[in-house]
Specification:
The structure holds two protein chains of two kinds.
Chain A lengths: L1 H19 L18 E6 L8 H16 L2 E6 L5 H11 L2 E5 L6 H4 L7 E5 L10 E6 L1 H15 L4 E6 L4 H17 L4 E6 L6 H13 L4 E5 L4 H11 L2 E6 L10 E7 L1 H13 L9 E4 L6 E4 L11 H16 L9
Parallel strand pairs in A: 1-2, 1-3, 3-4, 4-5, 5-11, 6-7, 6-8, 8-9, 9-10
Antiparallel strand pairs in A: 10-12
Helix pairs in contact in A: 2-9, 5-6, 5-10, 7-8
Chain B lengths: L2 H9 L2 H26 L7 H19 L2 H25 L4 H24 L12 E2 L16 E2 H19 L1 H11 L1 H6 L4 H27 L12 H11 L4 H21 L5 H4 L2 H27 L1
Antiparallel strand pairs in B: 1-2
Helix pairs in contact in B: 2-6, 2-9, 2-10, 2-11, 3-4, 3-5, 3-9, 3-10, 4-9, 6-7, 7-9, 10-11, 10-13
The chains are: A alpha/beta, B mainly alpha.
Chain lengths: 335, 308
């Protein structure tokens, strides 16, 4: 009897594990005018619910399912077992979208599945792979504008940024941010730190407090769910915060003055839509989605939300954006 | 002021000490709970999962009943249940506590993520009613006591719990039995007290204290926010504190303060040293602490031998 009960409990524990990793595997909704029989798998390195980077990609594939009738499977790696999840996805899909710089083994895995079209978001293979489309974003350009705004809104002359970890993509945001702040006023000091985790809001809050202790009064979060803590710190101490990847102002319109948008969802949508229409010319290349094509920019929230940024700063930001697009301003990058 | 003094003052500020108190509190609460099971002879590595459960059910209670106190209540009830569940497997069915601890951690991540998604959607939740903070304007003017201002009530509650736990373990018969149940269960049995019952009690206490740690994390330190896997290995740091303190609740609190202190220092050092290096500080401290514990034990053994 005892043995049976222990076995049963162990079974319950095991089942509970599966419940957790279930994700939401909804088959794509059909009913759109133009149908495609493509099967798409979205593999994200972390988990949905960050209200920025990963959720934006989810939003993109959801729209693909709705508009084109593409069948969508979504897989979350929860920062673990990326390679296995890539293979799982490739076994059952024609298009695999890997979201996160962490999927670097795509170089070895993609050639093993020559019939699958791969999209790698946020990083690029060291040399072109025929069936991989790399999409990287000019986050340095968007962050430049964020830095400009931060410097313009700062009263203390110190602005801050909280990064998820000390790593290429995150640092690409930071160099742009620093340059943007200096473009507004060379005397503005930029202080930064890294939380070294993407899912610990309490740590993010401490990071923001530590920067605020160094007098930073506008803080840019580049740290996924950890960044939620930055918004809370801003609310508690009464300083400003800048959101990242999605337009995050709605989370707390009183302290989030703007967001640096990286339109991950739109870029996936556009690339897959082109593929569904028979255009696979992009594969084998790296596509830098930048400000000129509108994939990177600043979001000020929806109409009706309190706006802290004065109109003249917004106009100046627009000028800056034009200069970046025309190439008059060259933004530094870590890549 | 010289450059070096500037660096020092930016690292050792009131902010550092305030963060020390904030970051130490969840670790300390869990460590006190871990001390109970440690005394009862159970090696409990499932504290991280228990904290995560507490964090989630705290937020859920606060969300459902619109008051943070209900959140704390719900976290505590779940803490009791998790403690009972843990004891059922480890004490009653004598399963390997290491495996059950691991399973509990993974189970907690799965369960809280699943429930969080069914209640709040994938975006997790935030902005639910949170616990009040102590805000006293006059405290800000007093030099040292300033660090105690603007802290969550849990910070002060922890002091009471530390003292209560210390008295419980070392000054009451129950604490004596608890220790005996781990060290000499047979002797305790001859005295007519069931060691198993003490182990059950220890597990439940540990569940409750870890749940409070989680509730502090989500309702005290943050304002009603839950993110998947937000315990971020605090349970393991708490376990290190338990071992370092030889399961003495007061010493465990001091160990937790040390971790909080070094975490705060690490964040502030980042301006001068690479973050990859500063983030290893808590773990380096763990190794140093462990080495110290071993060295001291050896020294004790030597003196004991010389005395005999």
């Amino acid at each position: 009897m005892k043995k049976f009960v222990s076995l049963f409990l162990a079974l319950v524990l095991m089942l509970a594990l599966f419940v957790g990793c279930d994700g939401d595997k909804k088959p794509g909704e059909t009913g759109a005018a133009q149908k495609s029989d493509l099967k798409l798998a979205l593999v994200v390195a972390g988990q949905f619910g960050d209200r920025s980077f990963y959720d934006s990609s989810k939003d993109g594939v959801d729209r693909l399912a709705k508009d084109l009738g593409i069948q969508v499977t979504k897989i979350e790696c929860n920062n673990d077992g990326h390679d296995a999840q890539m293979k799982n996805a490739a076994d059952k899909a024609d298009v695999v979208v890997c979201v996160g710089w962490e999927f670097y083994n795509i170089e070895e895995i993609a050639p093993q599945y020559p019939n699958v079209k791969w999209i790698w978001i946020d990083n690029a293979t060291s040399k072109p792979v025929a069936n991989v489309l790399n999409i990287t974003y000019a986050q340095n350009e968007g962050s430049f504008l964020a830095g400009y705004i931060a410097a313009a809104m700062s009263k203390t002359g110190v602005v801050g940024a909280v990064g998820g970890e000390d790593q290429d993509v995150i640092n690409d945001f930071i160099v742009g941010y620093k340059q943007g702040a200096a473009a507004y006023d060379a005397k503005v000091k930029v202080v930064t730190n890294y939380a070294d985790t993407y899912d610990d809001p309490a740590k993010g809050k401490e990071c923001a407090f530590a920067l605020n202790d160094q007098k930073a009064d506008v803080i840019f979060q580049i740290a996924s769910a950890t960044g939620d803590g930055v918004f809370e710190a801003a609310k508690e101490r009464g300083f400003y915060a800048i959101g990242v990847d999605s337009d995050q102002k709605y989370i707390n319109p009183d302290v989030i003055i703007c967001s640096m948008k990286k339109e991950v969802g739109n870029s996936i949508y556009d690339a897959v839509k082109a593929l569904a229409e028979g255009d696979a010319s992009r594969w084998g290349t790296t596509w830098v989605a930048d400000m000129s094509s509108g994939y990177v920019g600043i979001g000020y929230g929806d109409a009706g939300m309190t706006q802290q940024i004065p109109d003249e700063v917004k106009t100046a930001v627009e000028e800056m954006a034009k200069k970046i697009i025309s190439g008059e301003i060259k933004v530094d990058t870590t890549r | 002021m010289s450059e070096f003094e500037k660096v020092l003052s930016s690292i050792f500020s009131y902010g550092t000490l305030q963060q020390m108190l904030r970051s130490a509190t969840p670790v300390a609460l869990a460590a006190i709970g871990g001390s109970m099971t440690e005394h009862a002879g159970i090696m409990n590595i499932g504290m991280d999962g228990m904290i995560l459960m507490g964090a989630f059910f705290g937020v859920l209670g606060s969300f459902l009943f619109h008051t943070a106190l209900a959140g704390v209540g719900m976290a505590v009830v779940m803490g009791v249940l998790v403690g009972l569940f843990f004891a059922l497997l480890v004490v009653r069915y004598k399963s390997d506590e290491f495996i059950i601890g691991c399973a509990l951690n993974t189970f907690a991540i799965g369960l809280t993520s699943y429930l969080s998604r069914s209640y709040f959607g994938t975006s997790g939740t935030k902005g639910n009613p949170a616990l009040p903070m102590l805000r006293l304007a006059f405290l800000d003017k007093i030099p040292v006591l300033r660090i105690f201002n603007n802290q969550s009530l849990f910070v002060y509650l922890t002091w009471i719990i530390v003292i209560a736990a210390w008295i419980f373990v070392y000054k009451t018969p129950y604490g004596f039995w608890l220790r005996a149940s781990g060290e000499k269960p047979d002797t305790l049995r001859t005295a007519g007290i069931s060691p198993k019952r003490m182990k059950w009690i220890a597990s439940i206490l540990c569940g409750v204290l870890c749940a409070l740690a989680g509730a502090h994390l989500s309702l005290g330190q943050l304002s009603g926010t839950f993110a998947e896997n937000m315990s971020n290995s605090r349970g393991f740091i708490a376990f290190a504190c338990v071992i370092f303190a030889a399961a003495n609740p007061a010493k465990a609190y001091i160990a937790a303060l040390m971790f909080g202190f070094f975490e705060a220092i690490g964040l502030r050092l980042q301006g001068y040293v690479s973050s990859d290096l500063t983030n290893t500080i808590p773990y380096i401290i763990t190794i140093v602490m462990m080495a110290w514990v071993v060295v001291r034990k050896q020294a004790k053994k030597r003196t004991a031998k010389q005395e005999t």
